[in-house]
Amino acid sequence: MQYSVQLSLNNEQDTQTLAQILAQHIAQGVVYLIGDLGAGKTTLTRYWLQKLGHQGAVKSPTYTLVEPYEINGKSVFHFDLYRLNDPYELELMGIRDYLDIENALFLFEWPSKGGEEIPQADVVLNLLKTEDEDVRKLIIELNDAVLYEQLQAKAV
């Protein structure tokens, strides 16, 4: 990735603000959400989908592997690969059918478990817990210069 930005998410409002920026700049492509259990990957995704215009609940796809959304005529797929035992399971569940959808947004939690079955990321969001259980450090890797400038203004 060409750019890297480090942010501190000190509270829910910071997470919502970040989700707003992401929603303004990323409506398609592949995003990896990396972090330990409880780091806030699904919470960030929930706010992001809401900022894109989703009305209603955003469920964690931990047991279903994927939650599909249609938001303002755009397809969004939220994958959680935590329970995946073998990347080939994605092929068996028909991941190619999802990935063939043009101009869709693909959000992958636990992408390391997807191996070669999932595409390379356009953006990587790495959420890290801190000693303060409410604060997260976020490292964002990306290639988009405009988004980089927006995030750089928020960087700590």
Automatic annotation (TrEMBL):
Entry keywords, A to Z: ATP-binding, Cytoplasm, Magnesium, Metal-binding, Nucleotide-binding, Transferase, tRNA processing
Family classification: Belongs to the TsaE family.
Name this polypeptide is given: tRNA threonylcarbamoyladenosine biosynthesis protein TsaE
Organism in which the protein naturally occurs: Acinetobacter sichuanensis
Gene Ontology BP term (one): tRNA threonylcarbamoyladenosine modification
UniProt superkingdom: Bacteria
Primary residence: cytoplasm
GO cellular component: cytoplasm
Gene expressing this chain: tsaE
Matching Gene3D superfamilies: P-loop containing nucleotide triphosphate hydrolases
Compartments in which it is found: Cytoplasm
UniProt xrefs under SUPFAM superfamilies: P-loop containing nucleoside triphosphate hydrolases
InterPro entries linked: P-loop_NTPase, T6A_TsaE
Molecular function terms, GO-annotated: ATP binding; metal ion binding; transferase activity
